[in-house]
């Protein structure tokens, strides 16, 4: 008796699966996308919408800006190489006010970008190149801007602006 019930259940499950496959094939033939479930908004305590973690925003902003800078310059600013290109910052990334500033970022090959870790005088060559090309006033303005202390809310807003600006260019 139990075997008969089990057999009928197995048949019904098989029929159900076959109908589901037929529906999927029909959707593919008509090229109508399958209906999607609505996106659930993540909520934290007190029912507020959770924010994207700052670390993720910073990484996304860095990536998009780096892609833009490499596409803009297409070669190393110091040696002219076109291989292993990276986004080099004149004033280091730890200075948040100028981290995502286009005038602080230039395309450098990985050799030139990381050489200052070995040769402490090499960064001076990068600064000299910048001053020769853009002038002392622009460099001093960047340095002055880099010394400003900014709150994390400013960093979040800046990241969102960078993602919006350069994300559209990537699309």
Describe the 3D structure.
Helix 2 (54-73) packs across helix 7 (152-170) and helix 5 packs across helix 6. The longest helix is centred in the N-terminal third of the chain and has 29 residues, at 2-30. The relative contact order is 0.12. The chain folds into two domains: 1-34; 54-170, no CATH class. The chain is mainly alpha-helical. The protein has seven helices and two strands. Strands 1-2 form a two-stranded antiparallel ribbon.
- Put simply, the count of helices is 7
Oligomer: single chain
The overall pLDDT, averaged over residues, is 81
Total domain modules: 2
What ranges have pLDDT less than 50 throughout 5 or more consecutive residues?
none
> What is the chain-wise order of helices and strands?
HHEHEHHHH
Instruction: Trace the largest sheet across and list its strands.
Output: 1-2
SSE inventory with pairings:
Blueprint: H1 2-30, H2 54-73, E1 85-89, H3 96-99, E2 105-109, H4 110-115, H5 122-134, H6 136-146, H7 152-170
Antiparallel strand pairs: 1-2
Helix pairs in contact: 2-7, 5-6
Keywords:
mainly alpha; two-stranded antiparallel sheet; 171 residues; 2 domains; 7 helices
């Amino acid at each position: 008796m139990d075997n008969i019930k089990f057999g009928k259940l197995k048949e019904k499950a098989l029929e159900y699966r076959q109908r589901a496959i037929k529906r999927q094939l029909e959707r593919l033939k008509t090229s109508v996308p399958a209906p999607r479930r609505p996106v659930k908004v993540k909520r934290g305590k007190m029912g507020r919408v959770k924010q994207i973690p700052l670390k993720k925003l910073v990484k996304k902003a860095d990536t998009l800006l780096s892609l833009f800078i490499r596409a803009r310059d297409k070669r190393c600013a110091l040696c002219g190489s076109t291989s292993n290109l990276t986004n080099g910052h004149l004033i280091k990334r730890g200075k948040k006010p100028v981290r995502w500033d286009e005038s602080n970022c230039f395309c450098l090959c990985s050799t030139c970008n990381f050489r200052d870790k070995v040769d402490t005088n090499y960064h001076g060559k990068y600064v000299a190149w910048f001053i020769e090309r853009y002038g002392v006033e622009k460099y001093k303005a960047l340095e002055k801007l880099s010394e400003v202390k900014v709150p994390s809310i400013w960093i979040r807003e800046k990241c969102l602006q960078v993602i919006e600006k350069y994300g559209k260019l990537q699309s």
